[in-house]
Amino acid sequence: MATHDNTINHARSASIIRSIVKHNIFIPCAFLILLLLINIFINPGFLKVSMGTDSNGHPVLIGNLINILSNATELVILAIGMTLVTASSKGQDISVGATLAISGGVVMRVLCGNETQPSSLHAPIIVALLLGCLAGMACGAFNGILVSRFKIQPMIATLILFTAGRSIASMAMGGLKPKAVSSFGYYGNFIPGFPIPTPILITVLVIIITMLVLKFTNLGLYTRAVGVNAKASSLNGLNPSLIKFLTFVVLGLCVGIAGFVQSSRVQTVNPFTIVPSIEMDVILAVALGGNSLGGGKFNMTGSIIGAYTIQTLTSMLMTLNVNTNAVPVFKAAIIVILVVIQAPIVKAFFSALMADLKSKNNRGKGDDTYVVVE
Amino acid sequence: MQNAVLRMRGIYKSFPGVRALQNVDFRLCEGEIHALMGENGAGKSTLIKVLTGVYVKESGEINLKGLDKPVTIKSPQEAQKLGISTVYQEITLCPNLTVAENMFIGRTDELIVNWKKRIEKTNVILSSLGIPAKATQQLSSCSIAVQQMVAIARAVDMECKVLILDEPTSSLDDQEVSKLFSLMRDLRDRGVGIIFVTHFLDQVYEVCDKITVLRNGELVGEYLIRDLPRVELVSKMLGKELGDLSSLHNETACDIARQQEIVIEANELSSDSGIKPFNFKTCKGEVTGFAGLLGSGRSECVRAIFGADHVTGGEIKIHGESVRITSPLKAMKKGIGYLSEDRKRDGIIGDLSVRENMILALQVMRGFFKPFSKAQAQAFADEYIKILGIKTASADTPISSLSGGNQQKVILARWLLTHPDYLILDEPTRGIDIGTKVDIQKLVLKLAEEGMSITFISSEIEEMLRTCSRLIVMRDLNIVGEIKGEDMTQDRIMHTIAGGATTHGDS
Q: Residues of A with CB below 8 A from B352's CB?
């Protein structure tokens, strides 16, 4: 009897392990944890978070982990929008870096007007945020119309703003590189007296809103349905073009928020150097999250974890004092490994291997899990 | 005893939790057309896939003529090299290439290609097999039937000994089918062993020599066609005596008079699909049918009513009230449901779960900001999985991993959930097994009895005779006749479809 119970328990724990391993965010999570472990191995104090003070004597949290969480903000927010665009349009928006420069530029122009070093802000910050988001959404709408109405491939459609965006940003700023007063820096750094970096709070807020939207609207279902089979979706009363368009606008909103945070970090925007090639990191985050870049089903949690993974990797290479010019090489090397492990063909190989081991085990025990119908 | 070209013995193959094939034997002789029959899930496709190297068998032996050792087939390429070729229901050639390019693609190691020679060779093969295509023609400009024949010609040219035809006829019309059959007979006479997988019983009896029946992954038996009458074949496939298949009949036919309530009325409706303006009306609880060949405008009519094509003229009245239907969503909100013709392309959302596929239409009607909770959706799914007897591991299973018949039931559930007044079923039984076919036919009659108006479209006239009380016959995008009551016979319908010329013989 006891052995029987044992077998049942064993089977149950095995099935729990299997369901964890099979879960679609297992691999992204495993990567992130692995990276963190490597970091701890290199630097045992990696996870340490301590309370310090900034130059003005305000209490702030310091630590590698805090830096990663804070610096990942733009990546996470953009990955959320990119996930939806990927799912619905079966393609990626490569203009997010350039359009982020535009919305950042709009924010700076609204705050500083035509002055390079204004003594006070020209407009309330909320107005700057809203106009920045509006600029982002306008860029998203432009991309969205090209993709959904004119059926241009997303990468080609967004190549237009990718090429022109940073120059447009420079024009939007009137060719100036203004620096806003330091109170604008609260949103990219710390609010005086509050120790948690503001970007982390913004990220949490955006993630919560995203999850609520996915839970309380049909955005997720419609996006997936259109991404998997647009023709069938339209016969079910959906408007595939409209949904694709909307996902681009949502990404535009994400760009607006990310642009606001980014411009607040240093209180200035250089449209030609801000967030260099962030679009590739964002797309990678989506891929690392276990999403097919061919569209269809998506895994939002995976993308968010993917974004943190990339940020951890970047930070790790920084702390290892890898030459800045060599960072991309190391990053690429590690990403190759991550992507290959997730490739369906490799996954299939491993699951076949597992099944093989399992069947050998079972044969050893002499029990057959199949019921043979006579 | 004839020369066996292929012998499979004791084949086993299982998937997690399912024994797909158990100890299956199969034997194919030279120069025979051998039907492989069974319901969906009987193991036909698995057996074919084992044979073509898509799946690797777990145990058992495959012997090919001319090889003294059993073979292990690890990939479709290997199968091809061994002389096993497959032509699938979906064309797996490249539509953007020419016929000749398709004939030779992926078959040669030559560095320098003599296209002129190849085109000549292709033309020789095409004409010897009587295929109406030119070597330089782009494949997509050929009809589906010709494309399929090109695929067969390609297989023949690769000197295949075993030719597998997997549901080749399901998107062909009668004429095309008969052309395909004469090609098959021709190949048989040349000594090719042909495995023919189909759901159409008529076709089996028309063209095959032998039948092997599978059920639940096991071999039921191998029979000569003359030893196995139709009814027995069906009962062997289902594993039970089938009494109710033939007794099914639409008895509401005569009751139309008492139900004068007109649900849908279309006046001079036309759409951008090219359909000629047509009139149509249907009463409460009536089952109407659109009969006609492929491309005769059957689907185009109902698509215009549903707003799936852009409506260019005419009007629709629902319960006597004139409405404008410009999109499927508007039609759905007016109580119309449309199960589309091409299940794979226009019906299922492949990667999404059974549950999501089921609730989709109702969810869209309910609106963007009112998603069903998971519990509600699950309740709907559980209910209809039970009512329709859908075989699926769970409601979370992706619909693409279900068998064709079960996929169709899920799509049916999708529309039943919206409780339409008028439900259009466009080829709901294409490519699915007999058991499910009968289920769907019965369901149609039951729904009609409960007061739903239904339009049922099928390429199988028998099926329409069984379910419909009135048939609208179409030819060349026109309605050419309406048949009801006593007149509803196969002959009469055929004649109407074929048009005046054939009714008076060949004159």
A: 224-225, 228, 297
pLDDT band at residue B504, thresholds of 50, 70 and 90?
very low
Backbone angles phi, psi at A207, to 5 degrees: -65, -45
pLDDT score, position B259: 56
Give the gap in angstroms from C-alpha A372 to the nearest C-alpha of chain B.
8
For domain A48-321, give the CATH number.
1.10.3470
Cβ contacts from A onto B, under 8 A: 82
Containing B361, the helix (H) or strand (E) segment is: helix B354-366
Instruction: Measure CB to CB from residue A373 to each of B216, B308, B367 and give the nearest one.
Output: B216
Restricting to B residues 9-28, those with a Cβ less than 8 Å away from any Cβ of A are 14, 17, 19, 22
Three-class DSSP labels, A2-20: HHHHHHHHHHHHHHHHHHH
Are β-strands B4-15 and B18-29 bridged in parallel, bridged antiparallel, or unpaired?
Answer: antiparallel
- If phi > 0 it is left, if psi is from -120 to 50 it is alpha, else beta; for residue B145 that is alpha
**Structure-token match 């807020």, residue found:** A205
Q: Inspect the interface and report whether the beta carbons of B349 and A229 lie closer than 8 Å.
A: yes
Residue B308's SS3 state is: coil
Torsion on CA atoms A45, A46, A51, A53, rounded to nearest 10: 110
Q: From the list A225, A296, A297, which residue is nearest B360 (CB)?
A: A225
Q: How far apart are CA A177 and CA B395, in angstroms?
A: 57
Residues 6+ apart with CB under 8 A from B436: B39, B40, B405, B406, B408, B409, B429
Indicate whether B243 pLDDT > 70. Answer: no
Instruction: Name the more confident of B265 and B144.
Output: B265
Say if the Cβ atoms of B349 and A239 lie within 8 Å.
no
Opening angle at CA B437, ends B434 and B440, nearest 5: 155
User: Does the pLDDT at position A187 exceed 70?
Assistant: yes
Return the beta strands (E) in B309-372 as ranges.
Answer: 311-318, 321-323, 336-339
Residues in chain A within 8 Å Cβ distance of B340: 232, 235
pLDDT in tens, B323-344: 989 999 999 999 999 999 888 8
Contact A232 B346 (CB under 8 A): yes
A238 contacts chain B (CB < 8 A): yes
Chain B residue at shortest CA distance from A234 = B328
Average pLDDT over residues B422-435: 86
Map out the domains of chain A as residue ranges: 48-321
What is the C-alpha separation between B4 and B65, in angstroms, rounded? 7
The interface pTM score, or ipTM, of the predicted complex is: 0.81
Q: Which of B349, B407, B411, B414 is the best substitution to test chain A (most A C-beta atoms within 10 A)?
A: B349
Say if the Cβ atoms of A370 and B19 lie within 8 Å: yes
* Contact (Cβ atoms closer than 8 angstroms) between residue B83 and residue B65: no
Nearest to A233 among B332, B349, B371 (CB): B349
pLDDT in tens, B55-64: 888 888 899 8
Average pLDDT, chain A: 87
In chain A, what is the greatest distance between 2 CA atoms, to the nearest angstrom? 88
> What is residue B293's three-state secondary structure?
coil
Q: How large is the average pLDDT for residues A333-339?
A: 79
CB B440 within 8 A of CB B429: yes
Q: Are B159 and B170 in contact (CB under 8 A)?
A: no
Which two tokens mark B325? 């239907």
Q: What's the rounded mean pLDDT across residues B466-484?
A: 86
Smallest Cα–Cα separation from A18: which of A306, A351, A371, A349? A351
Q: Which residues of chain B are within 8 Å of residue A221 when distances are taken between CB atoms?
A: 356, 360, 363, 371
Alpha-carbon separation of residue A354 from A348, A358, B178, B215, B487 (angstroms): 10, 6, 49, 30, 63
**What is this structure's pTM?**
0.76
- H-type alpha helices, B140-229: 144-157, 174-189, 201-207
